[in-house]
UniProtKB/TrEMBL annotation:
Gene Ontology MF: a single term: ATP binding
InterPro entries xref list: HATPase_C_sf (IPR036890), HATPase_dom (IPR003594), His_kinase_dom (IPR005467)
Entry keyword Ligase: no
Record's keyword annotation contains Transmembrane: yes
PROSITE patterns the record matches: HIS_KIN
Lineage: unclassified sequences, metagenomes, organismal metagenomes
Domain Histidine kinase: 127-306
Name of the molecule in the record: Two-component system sensor histidine kinase
Transmembrane domains' residue ranges: 36-55
Annotated signal peptide: none
UniProt keyword annotations, A-Z: ATP-binding, Kinase, Membrane, Nucleotide-binding, Transferase, Transmembrane, Transmembrane helix, Two-component regulatory system
GO biological process annotation, one example: phosphorelay signal transduction system
């Protein structure tokens, strides 16, 4: 639409210039209207200048538009509510294009920022897991050795230098160190797995059986919290080809999150649904909790964010 109007205006301007100059030259050459012919030539020259100025104004705006893109300008705006209709239409088009380019650049920047954030987390996890494992493993190993010494070799201690009450406290302390240290090792190992998930080991297994095991594992907690959990399968027995351990861990985490989300809920409900999607299955776990606040949605995949 804009180009049609512009071309039409240029064409009419050229025709008017040719007509004006033609009349002026005719008047001068025939000497029948020398003065009018001269005025017509002057008018034609003015029309040429006006047309050049008109075209240059658009050229300048186009140059400004493309220069702003090259320079990554973020505050450029063309006033699309003043001036001729063609100009307003062009400026509105510029603004729309620039808005799309700005939105695309913002998306690319956020994607790059998230990538750098993930890489930072990955580096941090590698350093932490390396340092923690190097520090805690000898402690756990030593505590186990000392614990065996007190439990199995008490008779070899000379003169019963350690009294029974002291012996009990030492054993309990060593057990605590060993237990807490092992928990820390397990936690660190899960932290390490997060930074580099292993290759899935796919095989055929019963999804129905996995879900039954999941329910059995959490049956006590569900009853204690008075949570009504329903399972809706598209058929009684479902066999899938996937990594059973990974899928099991995902379902356990989702179920735990759902149970935690219902802490302050009166009528607590969780539903696990499996539907057939043709060449794939859809496993959906929903609860009637308050949901995730909108301001936290961007943070839920940050490691260990709660």
């Amino acid at each position: 639409m804009f180009s049609t109007r512009l071309y039409l205006r240029i064409l009419l301007s050229v025709l008017l210039i040719v007509l004006t100059l033609g009349l002026g030259l005719a008047g001068i050459l025939t000497r029948q209207a020398t003065i009018l012919g001269t005025l017509a030539l002057l008018l034609g020259g003015w029309l040429i200048g006006a047309l050049v100025h008109y075209l240059n104004s658009y050229n300048r705006k186009l140059k400004l538009f493309f220069d702003s893109i090259d320079d990554d300008e973020s505050m450029l705006y063309f006033p699309d509510h003043i001036g001729p209709q063609e100009q307003r239409y062009l400026y509105a088009t510029f603004n729309r294009i620039y808005a799309l380019i700005s939105a695309h650049k913002k998306h690319e920047f956020e994607r790059e920022l998230h990538q750098k954030e993930y890489e930072s987390w990955e580096k941090l996890m590698r350093v932490l897991t390396h340092e923690i494992m190097n520090s805690i493993t000898p402690i756990v190993s030593l505590s186990e050795t000392l614990l065996r010494y007190f439990q199995e070799d008490r008779e070899s201690q000379p003169d019963q230098t350690i009294a029974d009450p002291t012996h009990g406290k030492v054993v309990r302390g060593l057990k605590t160190i060993q237990c807490q240290g092992q928990n820390l090792i397990d936690f660190t190992e899960s932290y390490r797995q997060f930074s580099g998930l292993r290759t899935p080991e796919r095989k055929l297994f019963s999804l129905t059986g996995l879900i039954e095991h999941l329910l059995l594992l959490h049956q006590e907690d569900l009853q204690r919290q008075h949570i009504d959990l329903t399972v809706d399968l598209y058929q009684p027995e479902i066999t899938i080809y996937a990594d059973e351990k990974m899928l099991s861990q995902v379902l356990i985490n989702l179920l735990k999150n759902a149970m935690q989300a219902l802490t302050d809920q009166e009528d607590k409900k969780i539903q696990l649904t499996v539907t057939d999607q043709g060449r794939s299955l859809r496993i959906q776990l929903t609860d009637n909790g308050p949901g995730i606040p909108s301001n936290l949605l961007d943070d839920i995949f940050i490691p260990f964010f709660t």
